[in-house]
Amino acid sequence: MIVYGVMTVCALVVVFADQQVPRKMRPIPVFRDSPPAGLTLPNNATAIRENIVDTFSCENRIYGYYADVDNDCQIFHVCMPQNRGAIRWSFICPESTVFNQATFVCTWENDSIPCEESEQYYGLNEEFGKEEPQEPEGTENPQSPEEATYNPEEYPPNNEVPVTPFYGNTRGRGKKNRGGKSYSSEGTTKFPSSTENNDE
């Protein structure tokens, strides 16, 4: 039990220590259990594509999603670079769809870029993990304080706003509140609205 607690504390220290290291200087994780060589597709993959070839390599590729042009983009791969080599996970798109390298999803073939042009879009993987530059402080609300003040001329006068009396919680009790006291609508003032004709 003590060993478990020590391991947990060590793991937390490692996690918090990694967050303080700049992103570019963090070590690339090494997975001890590498997936088996070759494509690891579902058993029914050949029902979607009969002649599957295993020619795609993740060597010298950054982390990202890659359409497999040799398989007519019906298969795509996720590459994870390692200290030695890379790990590749392979997936097959549902029947009648292809992997669209421009959008990173499986789409109908006529909605996708041409498969042979997919390699031109591999550079989009560089956008993964990219952080947007933060705006300098003070630019969140560009409106000056003078413009943000209340101007009563922009709002209608109170006598033009219709008033609806509130009778409290009236669930199934009509105009009675929970205490059983009734309220009548007598004595409430009706203000003329701006849409009523006052000439009558």
From TrEMBL:
One of its GO terms (cellular component) is extracellular region. Residues 128-200 are annotated as: Disordered. Residues 55-117 form the Chitin-binding type-2 domain. Keywords: Signal. Residues 1-17 form the signal peptide. GO terms for molecular function: chitin binding. Residues 145-170 have a biased composition (Low complexity). Residues 182-200 have a biased composition (Polar residues). InterPro entries: Chitin-bd_dom (IPR002557), Chitin-bd_dom_sf (IPR036508), Scoloptoxin-like (IPR052976). This is Chitin-binding type-2 domain-containing protein. The lineage of its organism: Eukaryota, Metazoa, Ecdysozoa, Arthropoda, Hexapoda.
